[in-house]
User: What shape does this take?
Amino acid sequence: MKCRGMTLLEVLIAITLGLVLLGSVTSFAWSQLSSRKQVLEAADARRSVTLVIDRLEQDLISAVAGTSDGEPGIQGDASSITVFSRGVAPSWTDDPATMVGDLHRLVVRFTPSTGQVAMNRSPLGEDDRPAMLPGTLSDFRLRYFDGQAWQDSWNSLDWGGLPVAVEVACWYGRPAEEDDEPAFDASVTAREDALPLAAEDSVPDRIRVILVPDAQPDATGVEEPL
Amino acid sequence: MTSSNRRGGFVIVAVLIAGISGLWVATSLLFLAQSDVRSAEVTMARTQHRSLGLSGLRLLADVLVDQRQELLAGQAPVVDSQYSLWDDGDREGVVRLLPFGSGGERLVGEAGRLDINHATVEQLSSLPMMDVGQAQAVVEARQSRSDQRFHSIHDLLAIEGIEAQDLFGDLSEEESMDQALGLEGDLAERVEQRLQVAGSRGLVDVLTVYGFEPNLQRSGRRRIDLNVPWSDELARRVTERFGEGAAQALEQIFQETSFDEDAKIVRVLRDFQVPTREWVDPLDALTTRSDVHVAGRLDLNTASADTMETLPGIDRSLADRLVSERESLDEQERASIAWPVLRDVLSPEAFEAIADLVTVRSWTWRVRVAAGTVAADDPDGPIEHAVVYEAVIDLADPRPRLGYLREITMLQTASRLAAALEVERDLDRQPLENVDVEMEGTLVGPVEEPDLFPDETNDLDAWASMDDNPELDEEESQDQAPDVLADPASSEEKNSHRVGRWLP
Assistant: This one.
């Protein structure tokens, strides 16, 4: 069998074919990687929201209306909330009293410009160091039910008690696709204008109404028979 | 031929490797997914059990509020040790009342404890576990609060000089989760333990912030307030209750005496030499407080001897006598605060000194409940994914409320960590003392090593033997006919001394 070298044309064709093949494989891998990133981010956001709702539910149930130091037990607006509750936090501190004490402060704060949620729960007296949770949201909204209507903010000192319920609603950020660009931009603009566009225009991706047991017995205006 | 063979071999090996790695990836993904599902299940179970716990507390509050007539008569309410909320044939959703009182009680009356929002330095310092310095610190701290009151016993931890140990006793003895899981040892052990810890473990067993009660007569009506100028309305009410003669006599007394404290009522009864057996009605019907709820009164029917000692003029022997004497009281006697006089434990003079500080009713009851599921064929067995709550149920109004609510699922862990930390602190101090001893040149015996994890072995044993333990004596259930109470306190919060999580 006689060995024959390849012509230039053949080499070029081979290289071109190779490049095309490499390119398609790379672009496939790239799209895989980026969609993996998006999926992970979306999963992060969902996990963070689950964590926030779980924590809020646990603490709102045992929330107090006010502390001995005169601080409101529940104070919040549409994007942030501070809750003082009776609970336990087995964290390793150098103070046994802190570990078994019953008053804890939970802070949840949503920053609309970055779409990030920060949360911190600490025994009373500890510094407030909210930790950023992974993932971003396109919007996050808190509302407070006074027994008659939903309120955008709550201060348990001013209201003289606990809210009957707290609603947590959130909108996950949608992945930025080419044909989806304008809509995405619109929501960004809306955030900058501090208009709750998502809240007005779309159904939340996740919503939870947390009841505060025993909050306001007279809220319904109906007195129990004596 | 050989080359194609070799190629075939390569292909088989490549397929095998690809297959195995594919399988490996698939398995690990499966495990990941399984662990995610499992953790989601646990989270969901906990969330559900939290709701179950709250439903259980609601149920318990209803059971208790149905017994308000009995409470008015100075009796303790009766509850079951476990309530089943649902049953699907396989599992049962239950709420179990954990025995947490210093004598193993599942229901502890808060009025049987000293109210730190009204106690004086003298009262606080007469507690066996508190010295004068600590008592002064407590009163000072109370006065520096924005509303001059504590909202929880735990607020005392913020005070310099009061340690976690003072409040809770031995932290390593906290066993709420073991109880929920049915790991507290066998029946004999538990009975033995209860006998050992009959006294108060710490301040938490003798202090409260929930010592308030509605100012009601035995009949459920509001008491007649004498701390007002004489009026036709007052005359009408007194006549209605005691007859015309009593009203006229009282009008005479009003000209000389101003009724600014309940002790004055006792004083008048003594001055007019009313036989003590006739004290019961006036002491029940009359008051000198206009408040809807009065606070700072100790329940003579549930207070421990440690707490009784805080009353002025009551020493240890009198306190012990009061505690032993009340065992033999009948229902009629229990209903009146005059029973110590009727039983000749206290002289009328001694009773006058404590008249403003005592009651015979407790309207706030502390409970610990563990909520979760148990196997339907073993309802007393361990509770799966238990969520534990501590609550104070406030029955002062016909509509019961949760005065205090704390999720303590992790309390046992936290307490054991804190206990270990305290042991560690003691260890840090130990070497210095040893050095001192050696420098003095005395013979040093073997230094006893403090046990870092005193409960370690117990725990391990307990965890190892997950077998079911027989529940301690079930409290009898008692069918109560719901009795509607006539004219109790209205819902106005004016002049109310109630402390609760719902009030700022």
Remarks:
- DSSP finds five helices and ten strands in chain A.
- Residues 63 and 85 of chain A are 4 Å apart (CA to CA).
- The two ends of chain A are 111 Å apart (CA to CA).
